[in-house]
Amino acid sequence: MARLPHSAGSFVRKILVSTIRGYLGLTLRTTRWTFSIDPEARDVLTCQDGRTAVVAFWHEVLPLTPALWWWAEPQNPAMRLHVLISRNRDGRLIADIVGKWRIWSIAGSSDTRGKNKGGAAALRRMRARLRHGGIVAITPDGPRGPRRQAQQGATALAALVRKPIVPVGATCRGIRLNSWDKMILPLPFGRGHFVCGAPLILPREKEAQAEHSADRLLAEAITKVTLEAERPWVDRPGRQKEKVWLAPLSLQPSRVWSWVATGLAPALPFLLRWRQTRGKELPDRVREKMGFASQGRPAGSLVWFHAASVGELVSILPLVQLCLEKKPALTVLVTTGTVTAARLLQQRLTHPRLIHQFVPLDVPRWGQRFLAHWRPQAVVFTESELWPNLIGLCHRQNVPVALVNGRMSERSFKNWGKLRPVARRMLERFAWIAARSEEDAEHFRQLGARSLTKAGDLKTAAPPLPVDETELLAVQHQLTGRPVFLAASTHEGEEDALRQTVQTLRARFPSLLTIIVPRHPERGATVSALFCGAPRRALGQVPAPTDAVWVCDTLGELGLFYRLAGIVFIGNSLTEVRTGGGGHNPFEPARLDCALATGPRVQNFQEAFAVLGQSVTTVHTAAELADWATSMLNDPECRQACAAQAQAVATANMALPEQLTDKILALLSS
After folding, report:
1. Is the pTM here over 0.85, yes or no?
2. What positions does the domain 3-deoxy-D-manno-octulosonic-acid transferase N-terminal occupy (predicted)?
3. What pLDDT score does 109 carry?
C-alpha cells in the first residue's frame, strides 16, 4: 500500500508528459514555418563535414525549438543534439517530453548560492559532445533569468572547445505565458519564423571583464535575431529563406518491414525449433534469437559487434581483440547468426570481458528486449548485415552504429535499389561506414549513405590463421612423403565434381592425398560417402597410405590444413554448387604461402580476387582443376612464385585494424 502514491504519481506524470508532448507535436506540425538562415550557420547546424557548434536561444522560445531539430536532422540523420536542461522537476519534465524526439538532455546548471547543482559535470559532458561531432543547445538566460540576459556558461563553453555559437531567434502564433521569461505557448494551424544568425567566434579569453563582454555580445546577437523573427516580412540580404511543414524524423527505416516482422513473430519460434531439430540452433540458447539474454550485463561500457557467420567473424576478431586491449574496463559483446561461428569464436578468442550471444531476429519487440538488457554504448555491424528494425531501434536510443568491411555486391545493390527509400533511411543512420572497396563505397553512396570513410578489406589485414603447433607436427609426421592437395570450404554439389579431379590426380600422382574440408562440418558423413567411405577427422580417423581422400570435417582448423598443403582450391566457386556459389576468403590461404585456384563463381569476393590478380588461377571444370594441380606439383618454382605474389598482396594492409579500432572506441564518447 505504501507504494501506491508513488505508482499513482508516476502514472499521472506519464499522462502529463504524453499530453504535453501530443499537444506540442500537433502545434509544431501544423505550423507553417519560415526559416531565415545564414549560410555558414546552416553548415554547422547540420554538422556538415564534422562541423559542430553551440546553439543559443532565449528560454522563452524553448517550446518551439523541436521544430529546429526537425528541420536539421533529416539533412544529417547521423547528427546528435543535446540540450542543457535544469535538474529541477520542471527541467526533468521537459527532458522527458522532448526525449521521444531524440533531443537528449544534459542535466545540470551552474552553482547557486554555493550549492553545486551539477554544473561541472554538465560542462564536461557538453565539451565531450561537441568534441565528438554533436550539437549542444543552451538557453543562456535559463533556468530562472533574468530574462534575455546571458549568464556565464555558453560563452565559456564555446571558448573552451573553440566552437562557434549560433544565435537563434524564433516566434509563432501563440500565447505569452505570465512567467518570468514570457514563454511562448504555440497554437496550432498558425505561422512561425526561425532566424539563425551568423556563427559567433569567441576568442579564448580568461579575464572576467572579457567574459562579461562575450556574454554581452551573445545577448545582443540572440536579441537581434529574436527581433528579426518577430518581423518576418523584412528580407535580410544574404539569408537563405525557406518555407516548410515539419515533423519528427521517422526512426523506422521501413514501417512496412516493421509490421511484417511483427506479424510474422508468432510463427518464428516454430521456425527456430525446426532449425534446432536440424542442428542449426542450440537447444539451450535458442531463446537468445528472441532477444532473451542468457547472461547478465556487466557494469561499465559495452560495445556490441555483430558478425553473421564464420567469414565475417574472422574479419572482426582483430578489432575485438584490440578493443579489449586498449580499453581495460570495456566489455565486448559479440553476436553471430550461426552455431558454427559461435563455436569458432569460442576456439579463437576467450577473454573474461568477452560475451557471446546469438543475434535476435529482426522483430521490433525482440530487438527492444535485447537492447534493453545489453544497453550498448556503440554497435558495429559487419559486411552486409543490414537489418532495418535493429538499426532503427539503435538510432531511436541514440546508440551510434558503424559498419566495418561494408560489402554491397552488385546483386545486393540492385535489390536494395528496388527499395531505395528504405535503404537511404537505413544507411543514413550509420555514424560511419567503412567500405571494403571503392566499388562497395560507390554502391553505398548511390543508395544514400552519408558518412563513408576510406578503409579497405579487413580480410587483407587479418593475422595468419592460428594453428596448434603440436597437432601440426603430428599430422606432418603422419603424412611424411605424401604431396597434399587441399579443397577448402566446399559446398553441396561441389564434391561431386571433385571426384573426377581426385581420380585424375590419383592416376598421375599415386601417393597424393586430397584433403576435403566441407564448409559445414555437419556434412562430413555425406562427403565421406561420396568418396567410398573416406576417413573423417571428426571421428579421429587418420588416412592410410592407400587412402586418396581425407575428409576433415572439423571446425577452426583451416590454419592447420593450409600449412599442410602447398596448393589450394577455394570452394563455393564451381558451377556445380547448388547454392549459387560466391567464393570464400582467398586471403587466408594466401597469407600461408599457398598457390591458389578458384572456380568462376566468386561474386561475394570479387574485389579480393581482383586484387590478387594473376596469382590466383580460375578453373571452370574438374578437368581444368586437375591440370592446374598437376602443373603446380610438377613445377615447384612456379608454385612458389604464385604463392609469394599472393602473400605479398594479402599482407599489405596490416595497419587497418588499428585505425578502425580507434574509430570504434571514439564512438563511446559520442
Report:
1. no
2. 285-461
3. 57
Give 255-461+656-667's CATH code, choosing from 3.30.559.70, 1.20.140.10, 3.40.50.11720, 2.60.40.1180: 3.40.50.11720
Query: Which position among 312, 428, 495, 557 bears the catalytic label?
Result: 312
Residue 233: the pLDDT is 66
Are 584 and 572 in contact by the 8 Å Cβ rule? The answer is yes
Instruction: Please say whether the beta carbons of 583 and 619 come within 8 A.
Output: no
- Cα 572 to chain centroid distance, Å, stands at 28
Q: What's the pLDDT score for residue 169?
A: 95
Return the amino acid letter for 667.
Answer: L
Q: List 36's β-bridge partners, or say none.
A: 195, 241
| 312 in catalytic set | yes
What is the second-level CATH architecture of the domain 13-110+117-245?
A: 3-Layer(aba) Sandwich (3.40)
Residues 6+ apart with CB under 8 A from 390: 360, 362, 367
CB neighbourhood size of 241 (10 A): 13
Determine the CATH number of domain 469-650. 3.40.50.2000
Mapping DSSP onto H, E and C, the string for 445-484 reads HHHCCCCEECCCCHHHCCCCCCCCHHHHHHHHHHCCCCCE
* Prior bond of 164 cis (ω within 30°): no
Q: Where are the chain's structural domains?
A: 13-110+117-245, 255-461+656-667, 469-650
* pLDDT confidence of residue 228: 92
SS3 label, residue 663 = helix
Cα separation, 300 vs 293, in Å, equals 17
| Identical topology for domains 255-461+656-667 and 469-650 | yes
- In order, the DSSP letters of 621-651 are SHHHHHHHHHHHHH-HHHHHHHHHHHHHHHT
pLDDT at 453: 82
The SS3 assignment for 275 reads: helix
